[in-house]
Amino acid sequence: MQDVNTIRKIGRRKTSTAVAVLKEKIQDIIINGRSVDEYFGNNILQKQTAISPLIVTNLKNKIGFEIKVEGGGITGQAGAIKLAIARALVEYNPELKPILKKYSMLKRDPRMVERKKAGKPKARKSFQWTKR
Asked: Tell me: the pLDDT tens digits for 17-60?
């Protein structure tokens, strides 16, 4: 195990970026100065996605994180937080790597929004075709 004060990891998803700092003294997850419940509100899916590495490794109430996240929407931010937490846990305890790898939490999701093309209203959508 490594000195906890130095563990700071970055996670990205779509256009969101999250920086997670591992805090062993607090047992709460603080995102942009707010708790997880307060930050995600009623979005249970996003809340569970963001803290899933802690649930899988049974460390939910043992260690805490202070997270700064910006950019994108709530789904992208949840994915970025998930990756940042998973990376920090691997550096904190390398024995957790096989568990997190099994649930594919250490891979960055490469999917991004496709750019808009010229002469089209969106990336692939076309204007309605008229015969006459």
From this structure: 999 999 888 888 999 999 998 999 888 888 889 999 999 999 98
4-102: which CATH number, 2.40.160.10, 3.30.230.10, 3.50.50.60, 3.40.50.150? 3.30.230.10
| 3-class SS string, the chain | CCCHHHCEEEEEECCEEEEEEEECCCCCEEECCEEHHHHHCCCHHHHHHHCHHHHHCCCCCCCEEEEEEECCCHHHHHHHHHHHHHHHHHHHCHHHHHHHHHCCCCCCCCCCCCCCCCCCCCCCCCCCCCCC
- Going by their DSSP bridges, the two strands 16-23 and 34-35 should be labelled as unpaired
Residue 118: both structure tokens together: 């010229």
Neighbours of 101 (CB within 10 A): 13
